[in-house]
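Project standup — Tuesday

K.O.: blocked on the structure for the chain from last sprint. Re-posting the sequence here as requested.
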Amino acid sequence: MSKVLAVAEQRDGKFGSGAHEVVSVSARLAQDLGSTAHAVVLAGTGVSLDASSLGSFGAEKTVVIEHDALADYNPEAWVGALEHLIREGEYGVVVFSATTLGKDLAPRIAAHLDVPLATDVTAVDVSEGMVSVTRPVFSGKAFAHLEIDASPALISIRPNVFPSVESVAEGEVTTVVPDLNVSDFRIRVVEREGSSDGVVDVSEASVIVSGGRGMKAPGNWSLLESLREVLGADAALGASRAVVDAGWRPHGEQVGQTGKTVAPALYIAVGISGAVQHLAGMRTAKTIVAINRDADAPIFGVADYGIVGDLFEVLPRLTDEIADLRAKE
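H.V.: unblocked you, prediction finished:
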């Protein structure tokens, strides 16, 4: 059977949960197909990364593609390097993570290979030797079940939906240098600007404090920031789509169907009514706390703990109480 390839993203030489998830899914697919799972990592020349660690998530072989042009995401460079590997390796299935990068890269690869792509997949199976997937449609109001009759079958999985399955195994690692004609590229990466505040990304945070339209104005976000600070370094700020669309918060904080899917240990929803699109992105959180003045808000239907009240009164008191508890630790 054709091999399965996981496209594992790294940042500054480190693999996040998304890389572990995509390799784990690929390993399970390979097992069901009676095949083997490989991983590919694209990186700049000389980047220090522990590629063998992907073996513990099911990659029997990890291919590290190194080139100066791959140091930052450049679609022309990445597509050129990855397309060549897929064709030469004769992979039958390629799995991406539906991250910001993956949402740009996967469609480009599909277009170059002239094959279909199933995006934002939330369930994967094998039926009669064919990959079948489930993905949300109509803003999460329904789910479509698809069978991919193509080779390679391309899918991108929604982050924080699939479990990472770790073992003690280690896989083989090989490094290749692609033949890229950089002078022909029309795209140049001139600068990379990251977060300057050192706050963990919302998709990787173990605690998320998320705000909605109930916050009333962007200036009131200082209340959420104060709560985030007392919750510790692993806490991040989140936001509903309405807030992002209004320009109150950056898109990188958006949680929901059209934002990021998160699965933190604790999710605190403040002034969020609980539209189905938002719930689709956070309902797998281990513990959900909702603060809203509307007792009938849908968010309370998924919350483990709910506080019905004025958030402008609740938040300062909650922040002070947590700060006092932390001071006694």
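K.O.: great, moving the ticket to review. Helices lie at 17-33, 75-89, 100-113, 221-231, 241-245, 276-282, 311-328. DSSP finds seven helices and 17 strands in the chain.
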